[in-house]
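Researcher: Hi, I'm a grad student and pretty new to this. My advisor asked me to get structures for two proteins we've been looking at. I'm not sure of the right format, so I'll just paste the first sequence and hope you can take it from there.
Model: That works fine. Here's the first sequence with its structure tokens right after it:
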Amino acid sequence: MLAFSSSCDDTAAAIVSDSGQIVSETNRHQHRVHEEHGGIVPGLAADHHLRNMPLVVRETLEKAAMRMEDVDAVAVTRGPGLPASLSVCLAAGKALAAVHAKPLVGVHHMEAHALMARMGAEDAVRFPYLCLLVSGGHTLSLVVHDVNEHTLLGSTRDDSVGEAFDKVARELAIPWLDAQDGGGPGPALEALARDGDPARFALPVPMLKSASATSLDFSFSGLKAHVRRMRERGAFSPAVRQDQADVAAAFQRAAADHLRRKTALALAHARAALRTAPTCIVASGGVASNHAVRAALAAVAARNGLPLVCPPPRLCTDNGVMIAWTGVERLRRGLLDPYTIDFIQRWPLDRLRHMGYQPRTSSF
């Protein structure tokens, strides 16, 4: 399976076998392009995707010593994401699939995150399972019943946890890490937090009041705003490294504790209300590579006698491998798409089952 992805700011391609072996992969990052703007600039991202996509495709095929004739099928990110970015990978994927008469699989970006943990571990990560998707664009919990079938339990009421990490890093004036070190403001905040004292600044864990304590939803805007107000009243100085580290550690602990509490509620709801027995807890998305978040979720899993499964950190962030693997999973079930598909900017994950696919037999 050859896959392309450009839903946000990474131009990625990968080839994955039906057994889950990564044959080759290429990912061109844009961290330095957007750092000076403090966040992703959609127009700039699209321009760089247009420059990078042909090179990424060629490099991925060359690494695998393959040609398009050797590829069984093509998978491509269809949404959700930035429209201008999505249009680049979708155009490339549709064109190559059509010209070479290959089956085309349009992939939901968040389903790819949800299924990534199954690659090469299908016996260990069996359906159904509870999944926490935490990234720069999304924060949600869901039960993954099967490929193409998901029940959404909770989602963020405002900012995603990844967006909160990014904006707090900006409040603290933390330089972004290079791509080889994880890249972006969130990993930079985590690295700085290792030298911080989380007890020095008391940051509130969101949604602890009785009205929202039992909700399955998440909220991070208040936590982010609390850090901003601290800076505005001079409670810390972004120019003092220890202040930066202590606030980063306090924010990270509060965010991880919020995710822990809501994941525990989601698991209880899945068991009681949905009468579902999850086989494990999966955490995926860019923030799932954060060690404090993993430790908090591991505590929930251990308390409930379940394993916590996370993809390797480099496969938690956006990548072509997860698109390729989801393409494999969907192709096995005959969930194919016509060459005329368009991107879907806003695409609730639990609507996938209503897309009207007509499964067809595949020999893949």
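Researcher: Oh nice, that was easy. Here's the second one.
Model: And its structure:
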Amino acid sequence: MADFHQNGNITTLHNLRSRPAGHLAHEISVYAETRKITLILPCLYSELEGPALAGILDELAQVSYLHRIVVGLDQADETQYRHARAFFAKLPQNHTVIWNDSPRLTALQSHLNDLGLAPQEPGKGKNVWSCIGYLLACADSSVMAIHDCDIVTYDRQMLDRLVYPVVNPTFPFQMAKGFYPRIGDGKLNGRVTRLLVSPLLIAMKKVVGDRDYLDYLRSFRYPLSGEFAIRTPTLPDLRIPSDWGLEIGVLSEAWRNLAPKSVCQVEIADNYDHKHQDLSPEDANQGLSRMSTDICKAIFRKLAADGTVFTPNTFRTLKATYYRSALDLLESYYTDARMNGLELDRHKEEKSIELFAENIIRAGQVFLDNPHETPFIPTWNRVHSADPEFLLRLKAAVSDDLAEFTPHS
């Protein structure tokens, strides 16, 4: 049974399990008659061959209230795009597979590059940004939801709970962030949230002092979850990070653009498991090592934009304070895991903490060396200002790809 705790900064919507199955979906269907919902699925081609996506589609095929599903397909050639079209054809809803590497979209990328507005690196951030652009070009949805394509424990009720807070017209929420426990194979997972973000935010408060932004981030049970729903009028001004700081970046944008009372977090699952990244201690540009550095930079940039002054001494102190906070939390995680019959390898956890501590210094040095770095993809409002026809050209390019490259039978 979930608790009913509210932290006072943002509203937490719990799964108190008092509604019969299907009631929430039915209510959403009524709202969706006048408030259309689009689901975005950022996807690597390799995920079509993974253990999760086929099951996700089986669940989504039973969701009647979706107006459209937009699949952003990355790292695919023409043959793979045609195969992906056939793979997603089981969806009964109106759905579109965007081939992000197609010649037409590559040409549009070159055009944006000439304007100085192109995303600077491939990845999930660029994929999500392109899908949002297509959604805005369609101009027919009131709510956008997004979740990953590698959730092996997926259930369609996750989506019900994710979209309900923003589709219900009597609720004040403009954005809902999903949360859940990260448990799988008898282990306590979610290393980056548990061992980096949580102790880092505790350490930041001690080192730089009270900041409303830090309290806001600490309010989220799972700030790195890839599931959120948002009302579409906020999308044109949303600045999407191009690196691994996507989830923190979106929360920061909500902090910048929305009142706290219009942001909530919602418990969408009792159990959640997906693909796990390698720690990658030997390569700072890969895996959780790269992710941890980018997350730290995202937090540092946001605090600096709000007036916090950082020096090399700040980051050295922050590293030491973080390390102590992380070890203290590790003791809490260990006892929690043991009491619930879950495994937790304290040696591996401490190795992760040591790597993350070094990456705090790394991220701090990158920030100090280039404090004006703006690893954000331009907002769609800015793109529209530079080229008012671009969204229509994007929509046309996607349509032309769909017409030319028919799926394999």
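Researcher: Is there anything I should tell my advisor about the second?
Model: You could mention this: DSSP finds 14 helices and twelve strands in the chain.
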